[in-house]
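Late entry, evening session. Most of the bench is empty. Finally got around to the prediction I had been postponing all week. Sequence below, unchanged from the version circulated by S.P.
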Amino acid sequence: MSETKNPLSAAERTAFATKIDAPGVRRLALHLGVLLLTGTTIMIARSPLVVGLALLAHAVVMTFLFAPLHESVHRTAFASRRLNRLAGWLGGAVLILPPRYFAHFHLAHHRYTQDPEHDPELLTAKPVDWLGYLWLLSGLEYWYRSIAGLLRRAAGKADAVFIPERGQARVVTEARIFLAGYAAAIGLSAALQIDWLLWLWVYPALLGQPFLRAYLLAEHWGCPYVREIWRNTRSTVSNPAVRWLAWNMPYHAEHHAHAYVPFHALPALSQRLAAAQVISPGYANFHRDEAPGLIQRGGGG
């Protein structure tokens, strides 16, 4: 385990670790409610400007279903296992990121954060030049990796180093279920000659992924390859809208230090610790002020 500062007392750990359903239910219901509003606007609006703005909003909010997927991996979105599982499958389906596979990937990332030999996030090289930076931000690298990985696992190859042998069969089955679901959705859309799938999922997925890539790059890019969480992970000061959208994950160092803490308790945890490494007051600032220097240094780290 990585070294942390400001350790909590046993009583504090118990209090912060308390899981309840209500905050997650409210957050997920509102998240889906916004998608219902933007999706309806896309399908019924006549003004190209309104459709464009609604499509952009839908894209960003839909792509950030990554947040409940992420929380479900830690089983902290809800107290209920069933609700965590539902959130995981919902976010995973939208992002072509099956939750069982992602759980193996992400928990290995937590265990080996910024370890070049074992952190699976480092299997995807961070940008070392502007071309690589734009390629990563485009989301195209992600879609290639996700679709190729899904097809590979559906073909029975789930031998990534972070997937234990005992879990490989379930990961393969999961990939086949996802692939069958996508094929059924595409086939149904073609048979009924409707374009909802394009406007409510495919176009938004492509349009929204760069926003998620920009957000995720700020979490560890350029942090040193050390074991100490408060150095290998960043928290980012951001506005309430971004914190809502990302389910409080801008408190990322706090999350890595105490991954058992539910998303709704992270602001209070951050105030208690007051020790996270903060890079800049916002993600736009990070990409404007910090990214050029990281690229100049060949990616930092």
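Two things to note before I forget:
Residues 168-192 form the longest helix (25 residues).
The mean pLDDT is 93.
Will write this up properly tomorrow.
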